[in-house]
Inverse folding.
């Protein structure tokens, strides 16, 4: 879990530096489908028939955004975002596998993994107070708090509800970035993102229907 989360953080940072937030948000929103397939292969968990259809639809949306990245020079950022998606799925599988244990320490260990991976790429360890404050907000507040809460929620909240709640990030992230720093997603990003979000919503509704007594 710590290795997956640590590598996912690295992929995410590189992704947002090389492609738009909308691309990253929409591509990573496909993580539940990869998690479903890995859960079926590794944990033997049942995959709903509707999920397979949603997986195909989500892959189509991902393909639209990745192909656009190759066509317009943002392919590396899209590949980094896909790396984030894969490691997020690995993190969820690890949490599911060890759901009877307290896995919150893996959030701390993941920070060590991230540090070890990125240290060779750091040209200088000098940092301004402004950048240090931003790093502290991201690492101490946003990332740590969210991951600890997600780790605990995975024990009790049904997967369908987690999927619906995580969908909010993919919807709101591009909006906040557009509102505050005026980053405009491309038309094909919006098209591919809409396809992925439709697949995620369809999967969540199918899972809720199957889970509800």
């Amino acid at each position: 879990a710590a290795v997956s989360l640590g590598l996912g953080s690295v992929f995410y940072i590189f992704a947002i530096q090389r492609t738009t937030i909308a691309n990253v948000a929409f591509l990573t929103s496909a993580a539940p489908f990869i998690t479903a397939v890995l859960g079926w292969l590794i944990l033997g968990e049942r995959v709903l028939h509707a999920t397979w259809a949603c997986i195909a639809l989500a892959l189509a949306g991902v393909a639209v955004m990745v192909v656009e990245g190759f066509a317009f020079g943002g392919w590396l950022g899209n590949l980094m975002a896909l790396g984030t998606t894969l490691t997020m799925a690995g993190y969820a599988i690890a949490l599911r596998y060890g759901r009877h244990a307290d896995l919150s320490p893996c959030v701390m260990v993941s920070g060590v993994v991230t540090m070890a991976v990125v240290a060779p790429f750091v040209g200088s360890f000098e940092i301004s107070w402004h950048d240090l404050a931003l790093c502290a907000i991201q690492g101490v507040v946003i990332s740590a708090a969210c991951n600890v809460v997600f780790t605990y929620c995975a024990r009790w909240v049904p997967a369908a509800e987690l999927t619906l709640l995580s969908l909010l990030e993919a919807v709101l992230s591009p909006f906040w970035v557009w509102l505050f720093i005026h980053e405009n997603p491309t038309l094909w990003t919006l098209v591919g993102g809409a396809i992925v979000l439709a697949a995620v919503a369809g999967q969540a509704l199918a899972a809720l229907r199957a889970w509800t007594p």
In short: The chain has a mean pLDDT of 79. The longest helix spans residues 129-156. The chain is about 80% helix and 0% strand.
